[in-house]
Amino acid sequence: MGLLSDPNRRKALTGLLTRLNTPICIVCYLAGIVWFMGLAFEPFTLRTYMSENAMGSTMVEERFSSGERALSLAKEFDAHKRKAGGMPVEWLVKAMQSRGLEVFTQSFSRKLPFPDENKERYMVRGTNVYGILRAPRAPRTEALVITAPCSPGNTNNQAVALLLALAQYFRNQIYWAKDIIFLVNEHDLIGTQAWLEGYHHTNITEYISGSLRGRAGSIQAALSLELSSDVITSLDLVLEGLNGQLPNLDLANLFYAFCQKLGVLCTIQGKLQRNDWDTAEGYTHAAQTMMLMVLKQACGRSWGDHGLFLRYHIEAASVRGINSFRHYKTDATTIGRLLEGMVRKLNNLLERLHQSYFFYLLPSLSRFVSIGYYMPAFGLLAVILLLRALDLWVHLGAPALAAVDGVTEAEQPSSPGVLTVLTPVVISHLTGVALYLLPVHLQEMAVEHFPVSETEAVVLTAIAIYTAGLALPHNTQRLLSGEGTEQGWKVLKLTALLYLAVLLGCTALINFSLGFILAVTLVPITASITPALYAVVMVLLSPAFTILYCVFIYQELIEAPVSVSEGWMLFLSVISQGILDHALYGSLVYPLLALFIYPCWLMFWNILFWN
Amino acid sequence: CEIKQLSDCLIRLLLDRRDGTRTSEALTPAAAARDEFQEELVIRPLHSGDIYASFQFRTLWDTDFLQEGQKVSHYRLFPKSLGQVLSKFSVRELHISFTQGFWRTMQWGQPFIPSPPGAELWVWFHDTVSDVDGNWKELTNVLSGIFCASLNFIDLTNTVQPSASFKPLGLGNATDHRFLRYATLPREIVCTENLTPWKKLLPCGSKAGLAVLLKSEKLFHSSFHSQAVHIRPVCQDEQCTSKAWELRQTLNVVFDLYTAGQGKKEWSLFKMFSRTLTEACPLATSSKVYVDITDNPELFELSPATPLLSQAVVLGDRRTYSVYDLSRAETFGQLRSLNLLLRWKGDGEMLRPLLHAERYVAGFGLQTGEIHTVIYNNHPYRAFPVLLMDSVPWYLQLYIHTLTVTSKSRDNKPSYIHYQPAKDRHRPHLLEMLIQLPPHSMTEVTVQFERALLKWTEYTPDPNHGFYVGSSVVSALVPSMVAMNTNFTQDQPLFSSFVPVKEESSYFVRVYTEPLLVNLPTPDFSMPYNVICLTCTVVAVGYGSFYNLLTRTFQVDEPSLPLAKRLANLIRRIRGVPLLT
Fold first, then answer.
1. A603 near A495, Cβ under 8 Å?
2. Biggest distance spanned by C-alpha atoms of chain A
3. Would you say the ipTM is above 0.85?
4. Per-residue b/e over A145-159, b at no fewer than 16 CB within 10 Å?
5. What are all long-range contacts of B554-562, with beta carbons under 8 Å and residues at least 24 apart?
6. Considering chain B, what is the average pLDDT of its residues?
7. What band does A325 get if pLDDT is binned at 50, 70 and 90?
8. 3-class SS at B573?
9. Contacts of residue B371 in chain A, CB cutoff 8 Å?
10. Which helix (H) or strand (E) holds A546?
11. Do the beta carbons of residue B565 and residue B580 sit within 8 Å?
């Protein structure tokens, strides 16, 4: 820092930084991207290991043997589900009671802000059934949760049946130290959300739900089970939760350890692990797995029932059974044993899971990238914004010094400063507020005047406001001070650059993937913007187009490429899902984009039309 | 704490060696004061299919340790270790319980003597004691040694003086709660090392009588285990002219239908305790086994049958019991052993307890939270008042202005509130309220709190486990369905006579809620070195120099001229010509 307090050296340093600004920025950008892509290269990653002592060293012997019984139970459950035309509440209550659990139900209802066309629901009414296995000689202070969603149609019957079979087996064991809650929730995430809010007696998303009668203290961990076939070829672990939150890495380690022990094929992001890291295919495979995780995390939605638990500081993961054409099959008994083993180890926990990482990326189940390794990739991108800001700052300061020499008056450039910057900032943010509020509130009016459904109305209103934001009178400074000056847009750009740096920095701290993806598209355009830039380039790198690209990349990565029109439809549904996720579960991606990122981008857009 | 317990146990062993003379003393005929010993086992089949066994051992001794000038040194049935403690610390009444598990009121009904999970200790000191806190401190340490428990963790931060909830159960009308101390340790784990010293207090040890059933491998293979010691002064006779000391040792255990009974609704003494009864304790004046057969014969059958029946009014309900008197030889039959067998025949409707309470923490995040206590009055038409007592550790900072009491979605104003705010690191919150429960209602008491940030040395070794808040206590006089027996001194089963009944129409019930486990904001202790290094670097390098840069004003130094020029300037100044630069 002596470097900075010496004015001569400071001058030399800033001189160097301004002279080489563009090359440094380009190098930083490329280095950031390369660093990120290098994260998936196996020699650069760490092998996962169990940090939690209570789960690592203790021996557990799995004895669950009633897989066959679970499958026949699944048929029975299916029959009752068909008869009831939904969740067979009475049957479930009886089934749990006969297995010696304390059974409670919770009814809930929620009117969605607009119909969900993906899942075809609007007015949601349902019931959660849960049974509590009281641990012997435990004072009801700690609990574990196992959930299985009761889904419409043929799906997840086996999950509910396996849950009941496990309940029966667990009930006869003496070694439980924590109560175990077996939850069968209706309407997947909505049911889970209603139950969690009921359990914690909070109301953050305007659910109308009955109060819960039975509780079991603070929940330590949760497992969600999704299983739709009698045999499976592999088990997929889903970790990404609401707002990009992840459970403690030890939970993933636990799952991996038991898959290894019982010889079950396990995948993450639906991708098997490969051993040939030194070949191009091996690397691409790992990179694809990691990219999928980044995309899923960035979108901030809960990718399974487990995702909603994370808000309550409950470590949770979903285990999903996958049945493909591979001939190596795993039966229900083995899955039961796997769950038994996991629950027993969780039961051994003395403290909440806290030893291992909460921020990580997984290129495969046995390798992880910790926050210390991936943060530099983002840092390299973010530093570009600061470098450009520094450059502008120096340039803005320099003419003022030159003016002292006497040719032009020094007062002129700084006088319109505050107003010229403030007006675009306010207008952009008002547009952001409109984008956040209007789509949902104007849907009725839109449906009246246009031949569209409510969902389409919401999405199209959002797109319309987004587009209208581009057409707003952005050259307000002309009204205020006549001709737009070069000084003016530079001040605006400086403000916007610093604003964007702070925004992306905060986002990356909470949800690295979201911050990184936004940085990749926003940084180059915002760093290089001048009034002379083509508007098309600016639009092509706007937040909305970023979402569109993500949709295509995601489809490519899950090996289900789509045509342009299909991609467009997916894009529309992604927007509606984003708005719904915000209203139903409190996901923060939509408000972040609408209230902050989009207005910030609009400020840069403003510069295009400065002259 | 393990080491502490171990050393306590060692001390206890040494004490025992010295105490070993007790049995030989018992043989000498010169016992001045009368003493007697009774033992009793009650077995109650529960509707859930579980089975509840409650042991009570009572030693009565017509003497007074606390009388001035009278030094009691001759002990027969009464354990000397306890007697000495009572006289040394001037204890008027002592209640201590160790419980592993939570009594499930909704499935099991009311227990004969309730107790909260963990350890509970409450003591009334004699009103001649001047330094109550000092006595209390020493007493807890001594008891910790006697029972091999971590009672030494009781200190001022978890001790309260309830003003109304804990009245003396024995003789004497002490109302000055300065002489009362109450503390719970919700985290205390109860196991065999606590059972062994408890059994040693019995006159027959575990050698004869009902105590042979107390085998730890079975007692701790259960849903609920609770052992307690209650000492209090009682009347010697109906006239109540002189005082006697009563020591009650109780042990309650609930065996689980699924884990201990293999799912079959069939119980026997052998299946429960892996022992049968062969004799009474020779020192006991009465030794009986009661089996609750009120629901017989519809629900279960009992063998061997006994002609002896007894009726007692327990907890507001008239119950019928089969009595097996162990002091009579015919009880044991030809096999010379008694193995009671109960076989269920059908399912019964569950009896709903009239009073029930539960508690939980609402909210999420590590900053604030809300404690909800829910009290149910299941009586169809009678309202009755309950006393709610809450003792909350100081690190949950209660916002008492957010206290709300609602029944039937209407505000229910407590008629009496006693609140003692906490002092950080010195004493806990104490909240006592008298609340009227409307008939057939649910009353919810909520209070918000903020979680304190502890000093780093104040965290327990396992801070991420969370911190415990003891059970809240609901005490009530519940309207009784049948007339209660107010004649306290009359001969009746021990389990029905613990709490004195003052009026015929209601009975006393105490309900404990579950303890709470609350997470406090916890720093990441796993990498202190990294944290210290990082923080120091940031502070030293970043903050220091930036602060320096921002506050300092910079001025460009005039470069100093070379010596030759300075000399030239000196000459020029003298000559009056312009200087060189």
1. yes
2. 95
3. yes
4. bbbbbbbbeeebbbb
5. B554/A5, B554/A7, B556/A7
6. 84
7. confident
8. helix
9. none
10. helix A543-557
11. yes
Name the phi and psi angles at A58, rounded to 5.
-75, 145
CB contacts, 8 Å: B117 with chain A: 139-140
Task: Identify which of A5, A139, A355 has the shortest CB distance to residue B102.
Answer: A139
Burial class (CB in 10 A: 0-12, 13-18, 19+), B478: buried
| pLDDT at site A5 | 66
Q: pLDDT exceeding 70 applies to what percent of chain A? A: 93
A184: left (phi over 0), alpha (psi -120 to 50) or beta: beta
| Neighbouring residues of B246: CB distance < 8 A, sequence distance ≥ 6 | B58, B59, B60, B61, B170, B230, B231, B232, B233, B234
Backbone angles phi, psi at A466, to 5 degrees: -60, -45
Between the alpha carbon of residue B145 and those of residues B8, B94, B139, B165, the distances in Å are 5, 16, 10, 28
pLDDT for the residue A572: 92
Backbone region of residue A503 per phi and psi (left: phi > 0; alpha: psi in -120 to 50; beta: other values): alpha
Phi first, then psi, for residue B94 (nearest 5°) are: -140, 130
A-proximal residues of B, 214-233, CB under 8 Å: 220-225
Burial B412-439 (b: 16+ CB within 10 A, else e): bebeeebebebeeeebbbbbbbbbbbbe
End-to-end CA separation in angstroms for chain B:
81
Predicted TM-score (pTM) of this structure: 0.90
Minimal C-alpha gap between A472 and chain B (Å): 40
Closest chain A residue to B223, measured at CA: A136
Burial class (CB within 10 angstroms; exposed 0-12, middle 13-18, buried 19+) of B173: exposed
What size, in residues, is chain A?
611
Q: What is the DSSP letter of B498?
A: S
The dihedral sign for the CA sequence A189, A195, A199, A205: positive
Burial class (CB in 10 A: 0-12, 13-18, 19+), A18: middle
Neighbour tally for B181: CB within 10 Å: 25
Determine the 3-state secondary structure of A572 from DSSP.
Answer: helix
Task: State mean pLDDT over B182-195.
Answer: 93
Contact B117/A at CB under 8 A: yes
Residue A549 and residue A530 in contact, taking contact as beta carbons nearer than 8 Å: no
Which secondary-structure segment (H or E) carries A345?
helix A332-347
- Rounded CA-CA distance B485/B507 in Å is 10
Residue A373, token pair as written in the block? 């390794």
- Are the Cβ atoms of B549 and A201 closer than 8 angstroms? no
Measured distance CA(B520)–CA(B530) in Å, rounded: 22
More confident residue, A252 or B64: A252
Q: Which whole-number Å values give the CA distances from B176 to A150, B127, B168, B182, B415, in the listed order?
A: 59, 9, 11, 14, 21
Distance CA B139, CA B154 (A): 10
